[in-house]
Amino acid sequence: MTANGWLQILVYCGVIVLLVRPLGGFIFRVVQGERTWLSPVLGPVERGFYRIAGVDPQREQSWSAYALAMLAFNFAGFVLLYILLRTQQWLPLNPQGFPALSPHLAFNTAISFVTNTNWQSYGGEATMSYLSQMVGLTVQNFVSAATGVALAIALARGFARRKADALGNFWVDLTRVTLYILLPACLLFALLLVWQGVPQNFLSYTEATTLEGAKQLIAQGPIASQEAIKMLGTNGGGFLNANSAHPFENPTALSNFLQMLSIFAIGAALTNVFGRMVGDEKQGWAIFGAMGVLFLLGVTAAYWAESATNPLLQAAGIDANMEGKEVRFGTAASMLFAVITTAASCGAVNAMHDSLMPLAGMIPMINMQLGEVVIGGVGAGLYGMLLFVILAVFIAGLMVGRTPEYLGKKIEAREVKLTVLAILASPLCILVFTSLASVLDLGLAGLQDKGPHGFGEILYAFTSAAANNGSAFAGLTANAPFYDTTLGIAMLLGRFAIIVPMLAIAGSLAAKTTVAPSAGTFPTNNGLFVALLVGVVLIVGGLTFFPALALGPIAEHFAMLQGSSY
Q1: Per-residue pLDDT reduced to its tens digit, 372-414
Q2: How far apart are the C-alpha atoms of 382 and 192, rounded to whole Å?
Q3: What are phi and psi of 202, to 5 degrees?
Q4: In angstroms, what is the C-alpha Rg of the chain?
Q5: How does pLDDT run across 428-447, given as a tens digit for each residue?
Q6: What is the distance in angstroms between the CA of the first residue and the CA of the last residue of the chain?
Q7: CB neighbours of residue 350 within 10 Å
Q8: Burial category of 527 from C-beta neighbours within 10 Å (exposed 0-12, middle 13-18, buried 19 and up)
Q9: Which end of the chain has fewer surrounding CB within 10 Å, N or C?
Q10: Whole domain around residue 272: which residue ranges?
């Protein structure tokens, strides 16, 4: 670890903190339907969409109607994307003449992008036409991210409203988030990336002759536009197989810093939006504080573990583990990116996680296993953390023998049961599918490595899928019917088995009245509550996943110290 490395980390954290309140204020005004500086231009467009779709923006929906609208929209998106991927060979904007995707790969990819996971069992530049990238994948990058933000806002309304039977209108929330937040931000960010050297064109791939005389195809295309929403929407799906380690996706140190900022920006700001919606910004800062503590713990552990000298490399006279890293970023920026991308459910990478030191590779895995709550995906991080908030105040209530409350709302049996159901959905997917893949020949056939590292590849894959992250230990060959199908199912359950109970909680809370605080009310906007919340998240994650981690990266670490590698 170096002073320069820590300076990069601290500067990044400082800029994120400075962005939270101004960006949160803008998002709050958008989702509340208030006038913003974009309203004169985009207001008529928004109203035009409602007229075309037959949507009454004043008509709100119950939690069940909101959920049905969200599910119907996502199902339609899955069907359309699947058809596009299966027919791309007959469609325009395919200068390389790529064939259609196989049924199992199209199934996996369509689910992946609809669920905001963007897991890729394929190499983008060798598989997807420009039309598939833009009309299929990039569109889903926008609407899946907007769906996550809309759902977080719906849950916030559940806490903020009293004796209400509605949570807003899904179609209105989706439209406003896409139109006023994601599209303008991505337009600006894409231009910044083009300025830094990211390609944005529709040309055929360039054939070059290397110094050895070999022929090489250099992929290009509309990269900057997909890169922008990939980061801002915490999607992560790369136009190119090497993702943000490729110089066309991430050419400079400045582009790398801007990409890291964009991954956290909206998710961090949503904590402030929540505070504004419930009438107490300190509540939002408390949630942000808990996320920040978990993030700093992860960065510190990962940077320390990756900076330690591998004894096997040390014996060969090598002092740093640079395998899988870009020299233009180095260890500090690579580990900061790795922790950010898995804390935010983005999945983009600027270094190969499969090449990290065992304990450093474990930290991204833990970030995802904690439940997508360390900033998390846009929207998903906020509602994921609020589920743990409900669990934390329930535990606090048990300690003092009092019915738990949060923001004046009684947390009763219905909310606690739904919370536990939502929190356990992702671990169930991860552990069940990992165990199956570890014993079945179909699962073992995809491994590049044996021993604990091979087990880590399987565990990471299903962790990434169920947490809707999308990053991978690259040693696993996942483009096979078994993995495409099981990972697709894990993505579906990891997304919607959490969303539906969460919306039911929001509907239940919105229908309640609030009670005045008393001497026995547990304060939820101070350091004590932040510590309790962090403790609950870590304890639940540790009890659930420590045995699996002990079989994978922890066992690999001790084997490495004894001179064994995998």
Answers
A1: 799 988 999 999 999 999 999 999 888 877 778 899 889 999 9
A2: 28
A3: -120, 25
A4: 23
A5: 999 999 999 999 999 999 88
A6: 25
A7: 26
A8: exposed
A9: N
A10: 3-204+218-280
